[in-house]
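Hi L., both proteins are below.
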Amino acid sequence: MSDFHQNGLITDFHNLTRRPVEELERDLVRFGARRPMGLILPSLFSELEGPALSAIVDELAKVPYLDEIVIGLDRADREQFLFAREFFARLPQHTRILWNDGPRLRALDAELDEHGLGALEPGKGRNVWYCAGYMLASHRSSVVGLHDCDILTYDRALLARLMYPVAHPQFDYSFCKGYYPRIAEGRLNGRVSRLMVTPLLRALKTVCGPLPYLDYLDSFRYPLSGEFAMRRDVLEGIRIPADWGLEIGVLSELQRNYSLRQICQVDIADGYDHKHQPVSEDDPTGGLNRMSLDIAKALYRKLATQGITFSSEDFRTLKATYYRLALDLIEAYDHDATMNGLSLDRHCEEQAVELFASNLLEAGNLFLDNPRERPFIPSWNRVQAAVPNLLARMHEAVERDNQGDV
């Protein structure tokens, strides 16, 4: 059972009473009369053939308060898109699939490139960005949720708890982040959050001094979770990172654009398991190796916008500070796991910390060597200013893909 402490800068919604999902859903149906709700599902086609997504769709089919579900489909050819249309057809909600590799959306993507507004490399950030644009164009939802499509332990209560704080008409939250313990098959998981992000934030406090931004990020119990809900206006103004820094980048944009009183987090599950990324020690373009690089760069970029200057010497100091803090945390996690009857491989944990420490230095070098890097996809406010009718044409393209010949 979750504790009740409010010990960070943002409001924390706990799971104190295990309230039945049916009660939460009855409330959400009432809230939906004033604040209609939609859901974004960023997906690779391969996830339609995986062990998680079919069960997720079965659960979503029971959700009574969603008006709209938008699926962003990546890496799909024509036959795979047609398969996806059938796969999601059992959803009773207004459901649309963005065929991101289809000719209609590719044409719009090329047009954005001509204006210097392209969504950069394919990936989750680009997928979410296009889904957000479609949500803005559809005008169906005033509250939008988002979660991944590889959750093996999915239950619709997860979504109900995620949406509740933003959907409640008497609450004033614009954004809600989900959290949960990363435990599965008797193991303590979540290495990047536990062993990289938490000790890195605390090392940055030591090296850069206390900063409200770092205290803010350190208030999130699971800053890398892929589950969040937000008001529609959030979608218009935020700039989404195109790389693995998506979650940290979104939190950073929220801190810049909104009062902390409008941001909260919620306990959405007793346990959570999904597809695990490999460490990929020898491949800096994939797995936890790439993820840790992108997260570090996202943090450095944000701190630079707040006037923090970095040098090569600073990054070496940061690496050493981080490494000591991370090793101390491994011991704490090992003891916590032991008392709870969970397993934790200290050798693998220390190998991960060594990789992350090395990547802090590499990310610093990349940051210093590429001052003109454009890491963010432009906000939809900017796109609408440059190409005023693009959202309407995107909506038409998606409708034609979903209801006509492709």
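That was the first. Here is the second:
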Amino acid sequence: MPCTRPGETPSYIIAAALLDSGDCADARWAMEALGGKRKRFHWKDATSKEREAAISTVSALPTLHLLVISSPLDRRRQERARAITLQRMLFELGVRGVTRVCLESRTERLNQRDMRSVDAAMINGSIDAGMQVQHELPRDDPLLWIPDIVAGAVGSAEGPLYEDLTGLTETVHLELP
């Protein structure tokens, strides 16, 4: 997710929610409650009140949030920034023992581009070849809403909302070439 907060360097943010498999059902239920009548919760479409509720819900979950923030972002090379940021995220997840990663689905072409980044990271050995990486639609898995909320809170002008998550996050800053 590209972001530029006032007075800050443009950045690309990828967030991940690290959940134990035994906590997924309860977390999924909590996230579904945020969706209401919509099929999904999305930070950019939410009101301030809905964002506050989302942060409150996410901060109560038994999860660690990992952020990789890459900057400076050249908006003309956003997909390149995503590839670099994604590869670093996968490396960081692998270091933490994660073996299964679910990415939010984009378009088919962009999903293929993501998978080329995954393949490159496996080939160069920065992630284990056994790591399972797949794409899912957010409407099919509400757990994908968690990283959207965390990245949205970090990247928005509503930075104070993110303060409720600061004790639950680890952040890696990456300088883009």
